Amino acid sequence: MIKLVLSDLDATLIWREDHVVTQFALDAIHELQSAGVHFVPCTGRIFRDLPRMFAGDEAACATAVTSNGQLVYLDGELVEKVPIDHDGLLAVMDRLHDVADSYLVVEYEGEKVAVDADLGFVLAHPDNFWSVEQALPGVPERPCYKANVRVVGSFERCQEVAAELARALSELDFVCPMPGTPHIDITPHGFGKDHGGDFLMERLGLTPDEVCCFGDAENDLAVLRHYANSVAVANAVPVVRECARFHIGPASEESVAHALLDIAEATSAGRMPAFMCENRVEPD
Fold first, then answer.
1. What is the distance in angstroms between the CA of the first residue and the CA of the last residue of the chain?
2. How far is CA 257 from CA 38, 59, 188, in A?
3. Which DSSP state fits 61?
4. What residues contact residue 97 under an 8 Å CB cut-off, 6+ apart?
5. What angle do CA 11, 213, 68 make, to 5 degrees?
6. Which residue, 5, 33, 147, 165, could crosslink 186 as a Cys pair with Cβ 3.0–4.6 Å?
7. Which residue in 78, 47, 88, 45 sits closest to 188, CA to CA?
8. pTM of this structure
9. What are 87-143's pLDDT values in tens digits?
């Protein structure tokens, strides 16, 4: 039976342009929780974003894996935190110093700051540097749990910059989350959402076969590869669709919410969900 659900948010559970969950999905989450299943947003976003994305329903997002697994919350309490290496961030800044279209952005207590960047350039590109209104000459000597590279260019350009950084800096990983988002997530090397999933799984006394995960983008690959009960929405990027064991419909059709209702009913009945029996695909 499924006892723990890890779900990506943007373009997976949440599909509206305002990035807020629907009432149907909220009702499905509560039905899941009533069946004794733990629901966990598993996202690259920070915890502070979640109450707004869940329409103020804090019970739906009190337990969460955020910052791509670096920050883990259980019932609203921060229980795990893994910072990005400070020297690694300095190395990213140095590599980007002569790159005209890409800048490091670090976040501290909800404040996003561009590093070694022309503030005029940052403010002139709000679609790329959303929520960034300050620039600093260097990386502050404080633990950082959220950092990315903002790229003023195409998704292909994001992939190019990410590949260049990965070749030069093996101590960090650089992932382009999704086409249409002009940024590159930075995490410690070999680290991903699966770390947060395992932390909660062990804290709750569960086993891997009791975990189910949903995703659509490259930053979901770590968790989708880690758990056997992995699920891709139809709008997922090709590498995610190839990786996932189970397939459901697109995010825009509330496919994850319907799957949550299926899990709630199945767990209450002591069996596996119907969609896992009907849509099984064994990865190559």
1. 25
2. 14, 16, 31
3. T
4. 116
5. 70
6. 147
7. 88
8. 0.90
9. 999 999 999 999 989 999 999 988 899 999 999 999 999 989 988 999 999 999 999
